[in-house]
Specification:
With about 70 residues, the protein is mainly alpha-helical. The protein has two helices and no strands.
Amino acid sequence: MSKAKEAQEIRTLEQHVQQLRKEMDQRLAELKVQVSDIQQKASKTVTKRPMLALGVAFVTGMALGIALSKSND
């Protein structure tokens, strides 16, 4: 009887894993759509305001450089 119970638990776990896979695949598809939308908006912003994008990249680079140099100390 314990083998039958273990087999039932394994089947239940497999069903849960399959359900999680389906949900993750669905969320991944939604995320891909959102990322493509964000990339399009970002590219439009960069082409409209190249100096602003350059400034943001410079400030971000400086912040990362300072953070990395302080972590080595």
